Amino acid sequence: MLDRAELERLYRELEQPLYNVALRWTWNAAEAQELVQEAFVRVWAGRRRIRAQSAKAYIYRTVLNLAQKHARRREVWRRVRGWLSVEALPASEPGRGIDRQRVREAIRALPEPQRAVLLLCEFSDLKQREIAAILDIPPGTVASRRDLAVRRLKEVLT
Length: 158
Fold this sequence. Notes:
- The protein is mostly helical.
- It has seven helices and no strands.
- It has helices at 4-26, 29-45, 55-83, 98-109, 112-123, 128-135, 139-157.
- α1 packs across α5 (112-123) and α4 crosses α7 (139-157).
- The longest helix has 29 residues, at 55-83.
């Protein structure tokens, strides 16, 4: 069982890395912060069934699941707005330049398994075996998915 002190310690340790991952998934600071907070609320609600030694992986998995769900929901609304001839959503950061936008689009276009691995590898300070535990995949798969993601990004961006 996860107690309050352990959850607070995990929050202090993981809030920034989790935010970094969520931000690269949503590209929106407020949404990323909301996802991190929601993940901790869910972990607290389920604390009786979460062991302290697996809590870190559980929190990362929760943030990833929430981010994926959020992205799918946002995509549905974009389509609905298009069908209803409503003006397209404005860019979240106008004037930032095409390169940054191209990178965002390239990351967004990655298959979810590759995107999850890439973001966790690059922005979470987790070890490969920890990422493997979070995603419930073998450590070698973490490395291969990361390499595939990097190759795809290079192809798209060069």
